[in-house]
């Protein structure tokens, strides 16, 4: 593969702009080793497909990261099946749940999220945790900003319902960090 | 609870609010490794990494649907449409990728009734597939707009892995290109 100096500079500029958000996106959803591997893959795709990277590279890069994560989960399922044949099944790790498991508000919100449909929960995570704007979500999902707004509105409604089912909101002063 | 309050609670539930950024020298090394194609000493699975990245490098949209194998009753295999991948970007299909599938078959859509799609199996590439395959469509509340949409009369090439036809499984309408990949993967 031959690239000009300009190509390298362009890649570095794009990569530096997205590497931390993509890294956090991955670490929120999987273990550190899988996240590291996937991050390397995302960077390779950014490098090899530089011509396809849109003006706002973040939604595109997150989309690639999702794919890499899906591939990693797929091969992990294969390994689990193999392990199941030769021994007891390995426990499914939940990288988003604290081991200590104190049922503070954050845990309640995550538990409520887990009861939503994947699409709703992921939309809320992408918005609140990964900080994607409506425009960025629209680019990632291949839809319009209006459609994103409507889906987010509905997903929030479903989360509210789920939280109410979980019980009354605890004393807000007892909660942990308010902002990331 | 207002949208802002809900958003604040969601943000507070971020499992990873304080991840420190990569050290500058580590980032430099990562970017350099990417461009030069050499692996960092800390990388544990260089070959897998490169192969996977090469596959991901040519991104094609295959479809956003995911089908879950929910059961099999005599000659009928039942599949359900699970939530699709949010991203419509899939790795380029390779025969190697397809060959790893548990189940691969060709099916013609004989009926679409409400949420249920019935396919008649026309060819088995690998795995156990009934003569008839039922697919339950999703409820439409999908994030992604690229779900696999079954058309009556159309033949589809489908693969399932671990009971699931993933959104990037290579499943799609029969075409010379896709069929060539299936033939390569499963030896014709």
From TrEMBL, chain A:
SUPFAM superfamilies: Sigma2 domain of RNA polymerase sigma factors, Sigma3 and sigma4 domains of RNA polymerase sigma factors. Keywords: Sigma factor, Transcription, Transcription regulation. The keyword Transcription regulation applies. GO terms for molecular function: DNA binding; sigma factor activity. GO terms for biological process: DNA-templated transcription initiation. Pfam families: Sigma70_r4_2. InterPro entries: RNA_pol_sigma-70-like, RNA_pol_sigma-70_dom, RNA_pol_sigma70_r4_t2, RNA_pol_sigma_r2, RNA_pol_sigma_r3/r4-like, WH-like_DNA-bd_sf. Residues 161-180 are annotated as: Disordered. Gene3D superfamilies: 1.10.1740.10, Winged helix-like DNA-binding domain superfamily/Winged helix DNA-binding domain. Residues 108-159 form the RNA polymerase sigma factor 70 region 4 type domain. Belongs to the sigma-70 factor family. ECF subfamily. This is RNA polymerase sigma-70 factor, ECF subfamily. It comes from Klenkia taihuensis.
Automatic annotation (TrEMBL), chain B:
Residues 1-23 are annotated as: Disordered. This is Uncharacterized protein. Residues 1-12 have a biased composition (Basic and acidic residues). The chain crosses the membrane at residues 49-69. Keywords: Membrane, Transmembrane, Transmembrane helix. It comes from Klenkia taihuensis.
């Amino acid at each position: 593969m031959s690239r000009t100096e300009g190509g390298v500079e362009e890649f570095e500029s794009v990569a530096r702009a997205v590497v931390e958000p993509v890294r956090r996106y991955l670490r929120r959803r999987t273990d550190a080793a899988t996240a590291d591997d996937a991050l390397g893959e995302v960077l390779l795709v950014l490098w090899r497909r530089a011509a396809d990277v849109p003006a706002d590279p973040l939604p595109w890069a997150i989309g690639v990261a999702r794919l890499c994560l899906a591939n990693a989960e797929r091969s992990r399922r294969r390994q689990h099946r193999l392990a199941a044949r030769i021994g007891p099944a390995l426990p499914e790790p939940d990288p988003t749940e604290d081991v200590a498991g104190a049922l503070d508000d954050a845990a309640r919100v995550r538990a409520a999220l887990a009861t939503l449909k994947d699409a709703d929960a992921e939309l809320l995570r992408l918005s609140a945790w990964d900080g994607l704007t409506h425009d960025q979500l629209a680019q990632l999902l291949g839809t319009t900003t209006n459609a994103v707004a409507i889906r987010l509105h509905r997903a929030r409604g479903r989360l509210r319902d789920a939280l109410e089912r979980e019980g009354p909101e605890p004393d807000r002063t007892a909660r942990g960090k308010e902002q990331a | 609870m207002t949208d802002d309050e809900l958003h604040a609670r969601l943000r507070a539930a971020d499992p990873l609010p304080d991840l420190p950024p990569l050290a500058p020298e580590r980032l430099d090394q990562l970017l350099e490794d990417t461009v030069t194609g050499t692996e960092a000493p800390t990388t544990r699975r260089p070959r897998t990494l490169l192969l996977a990245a090469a596959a991901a490098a040519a991104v094609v949209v295959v479809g956003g649907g995911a089908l879950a194998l929910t059961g099999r009753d005599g000659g009928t295999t039942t599949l359900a449409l699970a939530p699709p991948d949010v991203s419509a970007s899939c790795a380029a299909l390779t025969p190697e990728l397809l060959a790893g599938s548990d189940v691969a078959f060709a099916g013609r859509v004989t009926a679409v009734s409400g949420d249920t799609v019935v396919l008649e199996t026309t060819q088995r590439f690998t795995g156990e597939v009934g003569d008839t395959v039922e697919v339950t469509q999703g409820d439409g509340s999908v994030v992604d707009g690229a779900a696999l949409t079954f058309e009556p009369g159309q033949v589809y090439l489908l693969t399932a892995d671990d009971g699931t036809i993933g959104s990037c499984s290579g499943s799609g309408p029969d075409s010379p290109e896709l069929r060539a990949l299936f033939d390569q993967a499963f030896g014709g």
